Amino acid sequence: MTTTAQLPKAFLEKMQRLLGPEAEAWFASYDAPRAIGLRANPLKLDASALARKLPFGVAPVPWCETGFAVVDEPGASAPGKHPYHAAGLYYMQEPSAMYPAAQLGVQPGERVLDLCAAPGGKTTHIGGALAGRGLLIANEYEAKRAKALSENVERLGLANCLVLNETPERLAARFPGYFDRILVDAPCSGEGMFRKDPEAAAYWSESHVEACARLQTELLDAAVAMLRGGGTLVYSTCTFSPEENERAIEALLARHPALELEPLPLVGGVSPGVPAWTAGGNERLAGAARLWPHRVRGEGHFAAKLRKADGGNAPVDAAGGDGAAAPAGKRRPSGGSPAPTRQQLALYRAFEAETIVGQVDGTFAAYGPQLYRLPEDCPDLTGLRAVRPGLHLGELKKDRFEPNHALALALPADRFRHKYELLDGGERAADAYFRGETLASGEDRGWLVVTYDGFPVGWGKESKGTLKNFYPKGLRRMGV
Ligand code: SAM
Known about the structure:
Layout: H1 9-19, H2 23-28, E1 37-40, H3 47-53, E2 58-61, E3 64-70, H4 78-81, H5 83-86, E4 90-92, H6 99-103, E5 111-114, H7 121-130, E6 135-139, H8 143-155, E7 161-164, H9 168-174, E8 179-185, H10 198-202, H11 206-226, E9 227-237, H12 246-255, E10 259-262, E11 271-272, E12 289-291, E13 301-308, H13 342-355, E14 364-367, E15 370-373, E16 386-389, E17 391-396, E18 401-403, H14 405-410, E19 419-421, H15 427-435, E20 439-440, E21 446-452, E22 455-463, E23 466-469
Parallel strand pairs: 5-6, 5-8, 6-7, 8-9, 19-21
Antiparallel strand pairs: 1-3, 1-4, 2-3, 7-16, 9-13, 10-13, 11-12, 12-13, 14-15, 15-17, 17-18, 20-23, 21-22, 22-23
Helix pairs in contact: 9-11
Residues 97, 116-122, 140-142, 145, 168, 185, 187, 215, 219 line the site of S-adenosylmethionine.
């Protein structure tokens, strides 16, 4: 936990100036424990059913129907180590970070872009709202962070999600006017993270705030270029500085007359944006939202929601890019993705017939030996850095098919012919499985899904009474 004594003096003085008499309450929030929360994954079970199952106390989050604050402090990391977490039943997310994606208004079947997506808190929120239909592109600029994003997409079972590792400029060149909804959860000076992470505070300076504001301008222009007429854009940050919040939106509205600010709901202690903090006293900014750590249970967030006028698709300068490919929206769906050979498909279907109830349908693509099922309405990915081009079904070996972890996590337990329930072997069986150990099973059923309390957590392969462990090596943990 950070104390105010660890925060840069200039930052504290700026907050004092901005907040006036209210600054005392804001300073005092640094003495309170940080807010911990989790969001139920509706692709696996509904929020009330999850709340009944959890072995620790939770309280609802007023602005997110699937969100909970963790209230009885079970040791801060316990919810992140529970087998329900490994099963993708929830995502750990502090409550104020649940606000922006909840305001995006995503409907099943839409095309949605999460432009700055890692590690995936808001991507997994959007994925739940899409209910497995439509297309979600989760993009992350930093390659390492894109990997963490991809793992979270896998764990939560998002089968209609493409994970990309691209620059916003290249995306804007490929996807003009393409998306129904876009979230820009921008890289920022992160002042709302200081309570949790004193090291983040060490980076703070006015010039860093200004550099963040310049980057946010570029990201927002790229996002506007990718939004269809009538589409919705939500911008959010986890910082308090007006330059990155009210002023960023004020300038955006001035650059793009086709955008209109839609007022956000001020539920459960959420505060309005502050027009007095804009350069021109723009009253419309009261329609933005601020989640202050001294007013709500949360670390702090800003959000603004914008609608692009119908037909407001005029290209903006930011959509430069390499110009190499035709706009994705004009291509045949999935055009350009490498189709599997008949033999590859036959190997997969043979595995499927033995292991899965029913078929996984849709368009398949083989990237080398890796077999994927593309999302419906999948654009051409040629030339884009795709970290996860859809649902990873598995790997085609010489004369057999080996399933990927993502397939186990994307289907409900009743889609698997054979199951191994860890609770039947006691809590020790779960610990052993997550450590990667072989388990005794007494049967010989081949590939099966391993479940915890009826929820798939990974693959196992039974042979001569033992269960070989296919829980991914990178996810295994020691000493649980
Ligand atoms: N939306 C994420 C979530 O809810 O888990 C958090 C996103 S974080 C606030 C901002 C992300 O933007 C970081 O992952 C960062 O790596 C990424 N980023 C950094 N520089 C960027 C750039 N130039 N363009 C786009 N994204 C960038």
